[in-house]
Each structure stands twice: as C-alpha cells, then as structure tokens.
C-alpha cells in the first residue's frame, strides 16, 4: 500500500515537472508580431526581412510610468530565403524568437512587382506559424519603412494597419483584409488572380519614425490605399477609389458604402448602400466566353444638396435608375481595366470551370487572352428603401 502511494507521488511530481518544461518568461521571448519582406539589391541575399518584436517594458509604459522605450522594436536581416532570415534573426534579437503570434505580413512594392511565386512556402509549411494573418502591399515605401512609423493613436504600426483597413472595408469598401491562406489559394488557382490591399503613408516627414511624430496635430500616419492586382504572381497595377471598390461589388465583399449621384448642375445626392449581393457567371457563346454579372443593391437616401421631395415614389424610382446606371459604369470600367491587364481578379475563370468544365479544361491555359476579349453582360437592380428621418431637405430662409 505504501509502495502504491509512493508511486502516485512520484507520478504526480513527474507530471508537474513535465507540465512546466516548456514554460518561458515573457522577458525571455522575442515575440514577433509583424513581418516585412522587401527586395534586396544583393543577388547573394535577395530578401530583406524585418521582424517587429514586442518590447514588454515599452508596453508597460502605456499603462504605467514604469515602462522604458517603445512598445515594439524592429530588427532587419538579409538572406537567401525566409527560413535563413529567421535563423539569422537570432543573431540580432537578444531573446528566443517566437513567431506564433505573428499578426500581419507586409510585402514591399518592388518585391511584389518582381513576383510572389513561392514566397510564402515556409510560412505555409512551418509548424509554429499561422496562415490566418492578413497580407498587405507597401505602396511607394519599403515594408521596413512602414513597420518603423510611430503611430499616433495605436500602440503598434501593425495594429493600426489592420484596424484602418477593417474600418475602410466597413465604411467605404475599396479594400479588405486578405488572409495569407486566401493569398496562397489565389496563387494556386487557375481561374482567379491575386488582389491584395495596399498601404501608404500620409504626411510623411523625417519625424515619421521618431517619438516627435506624437508632438504634432498633423503627424505622419499609415493609410489604407488602393488594391494591388496581380498577374502570374506579379503586381501589374494599382486600383484606387471607385475602381477598386467595383472589384468588391462584383465579389460581394461590400459591407457598406456611399454612391454619389448628381441631382443638378452643382448639387449631388448621396445614397448609402446597406446591402449588395452579386452573382457572376461565365457562359460560352460561339466558343467565346461571355461574362455575366447580376447585382442586387439596397440603399438609403442619406443626403441631398438639391430640393428633392422624397415623398414622391416616382422620384425614388428615378434615382434608383440613376444609381443603376452609375454602378454599371463603374463596374464596366473596372472590368475593362482588368481585361486590358489580362488579370481576372474576380474569379470568372473559376466560375467557368464549374459550369463548363470541358471547355475550361480545353482552354484554361489561354484564359488570360480569352478573358481580355470576353463580352460583358451586366444587370444591376437598386432598391432605395427610405430617405432617412425626413422626406424633404430643410430650406434655408434665403432660398
């Protein structure tokens, strides 16, 4: 009996010891939360990789006065591959590297134009790395530079980039967060090319990477800007504003946005889209593909600078037709741009592979050319369900 009790105690102690074997103090870990990948001019080491590491002492400073330094610290290395870069980083990061908390990846524009190819293979293959992190393209600046901007409102540049892009997606819709596994899936797809959100810097100055960036009411800051579209893994063009938003309309990724319609020579009406759903099909007519999109939009009249009586149902119908015409124009313009670049970022090829697998199997290698010459057929249906809290705009006494 005593022997059995002794064995139980020994087992319990062993379990306790083994349970703590992987325990690490925070100040022993180099927790990497952001990664920037740039082209390096040295052909022997073609990648320049920046790791953004949490500084626990700097984080403490945000809630108490006992902290020291910034919330994050950046370390940059050059290497032949990303695996080698991670190994080399151990020579400059004075703690055990931990990449399991990576929250975003930024790709420099020059590298994106050279081609992504198998850039993400090590992340997809790695055991301790996540593929559910968003990917961004740094526009006009290197990824290293973007990760070094001292943000005025958020603790880290990475948090600011993710939050800003999400806000833009919710309120306007010209961009969205694209996760790494979605990027890899698009790179592997035979019927859809990659499109990734862009980030840029506003009010850039020599203080952008200094603490003094806090000490002005017009600091440098990172903004969500445009959509990078790719062909065969290489960035070929930027889409901005309404042109970028049209991609989101076609792929049903619009949450909310505003469409401005002229209501007079000098005035405009603003209709807020509260729901947009699109269906896309690719049919074959005389051995040529025809692209069909059918979009249903629900909106609210939210502002007008014209004297409009919204109680008149004929007037609402008139603006529904005007908005349908405007959206068709925007969507056709974007599709024609992508046809010119031979980059199907919508997934019309994927739709064709499902509906006409025999035709797709026969012509998929020529899809870029077929897409560029495809006929566009478009139907847009708009319903304006209300005009806000009043039927007529207020009238200033001098009008």
Structure description:
This protein is 33% helix and 30% strand. It has 399 residues and is an alpha/beta fold. The protein folds into two domains: 25-239, no CATH class; 251-399, Nutrient germinant receptor protein C, domain 3 (GMP Synthetase, Chain A, domain 3, 2-Layer Sandwich), CATH 3.30.300.210. The strands form two sheets. Strands 1, 2, 3, 4, 5, 6, 7, 8, 9 and 10 form a ten-stranded mixed β-sheet that branches. The radius of gyration is 26 Å and the shape is flat. 35% of the residues are buried. The model is unreliable at 63-67 (pLDDT under 50).
The biggest beta sheet is recorded as: 10 strands, mixed
User: What is the CA-atom radius of gyration, in angstroms?
Assistant: 26 Å
- Count every beta strand, where a strand is a DSSP E run of 2 or more residues: 14
Q: What class, by secondary structure content?
A: alpha/beta
Strand content: 25-35%
- Helix percent reads 25-40%
Mean pLDDT: 86
Shape descriptor: flat
How far from one another are the termini? 101 Å
The string of secondary-structure elements, in order, is: HEEHEHEEHHEHHEHEEEHEEEHHHHE
Individual helix count: 13
User: How many structural domains can be distinguished in the coordinates?
Assistant: 2
Poorly predicted runs: 63-67
């Amino acid at each position: 009996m005593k022997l059995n009790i002794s064995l139980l105690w020994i087992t319990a102690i062993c379990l306790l010891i083994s349970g703590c074997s992987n325990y690490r103090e925070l100040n022993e870990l180099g927790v990497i939360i952001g990664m920037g990948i740039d082209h390096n001019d040295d052909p022997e080491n073609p990648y320049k990789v920046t790791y953004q590491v949490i500084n626990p002492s700097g984080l403490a400073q945000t809630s108490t006065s006992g902290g020291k330094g910034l919330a994050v610290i950046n370390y940059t290395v050059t290497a032949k591959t990303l695996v080698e870069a991670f190994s080399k980083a151990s020579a400059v990061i004075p703690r055990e590297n931990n990449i399991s908390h990576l929250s975003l990846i930024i790709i420099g524009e020059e590298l994106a134009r050279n081609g992504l190819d198998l850039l993400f293979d090590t992340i997809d293959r790695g055991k301790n790395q996540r593929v559910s992190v968003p990917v961004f393209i740094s526009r006009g600046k290197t990824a290293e530079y973007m990760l070094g901007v001292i943000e005025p409102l958020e603790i880290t540049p990475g948090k600011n980039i993710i939050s800003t892009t999400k806000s833009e997606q919710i309120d306007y819709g010209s961009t969205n967060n694209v996760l790494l596994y979605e990027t890899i899936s698009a790179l592997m797809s035979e019927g859809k090319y990659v499109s990734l959100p862009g980030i840029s810097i506003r009010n850039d100055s020599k203080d952008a990477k200094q603490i003094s960036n806090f000490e002005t009411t017009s600091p440098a800051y990172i903004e969500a800007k445009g959509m990078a579209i790719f062909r065969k893994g290489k960035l070929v063009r930027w889409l901005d504003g309404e042109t970028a938003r049209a991609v989101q309309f076609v792929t049903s990724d619009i949450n909310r946005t505003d469409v401005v319609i002229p209501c007079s020579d000098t005035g405009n009406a603003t209709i807020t889209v509260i729901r947009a759903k699109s269906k896309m099909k690719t049919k074959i007519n005389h051995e040529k593909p025809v692209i069909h999109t059918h979009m249903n939009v629900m909106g609210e009249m939210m502002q007008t600078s014209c004297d409009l009586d919204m109680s008149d149902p004929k007037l609402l119908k008139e603006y529904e037709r005007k908005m349908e015409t405007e959206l068709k124009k925007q969507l056709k313009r974007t599709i024609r741009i992508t046809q010119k670049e031979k980059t199907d970022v919508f997934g019309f090829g994927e739709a064709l592979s499902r509906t006409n697998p025999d035709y797709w199997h026969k012509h998929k290698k020529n899809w870029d050319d077929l897409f560029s010459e495809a006929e566009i057929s478009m139907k847009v249906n708009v319903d304006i369900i209300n005009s806000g809290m009043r039927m007529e705009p207020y009238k200033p006494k001098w009008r």
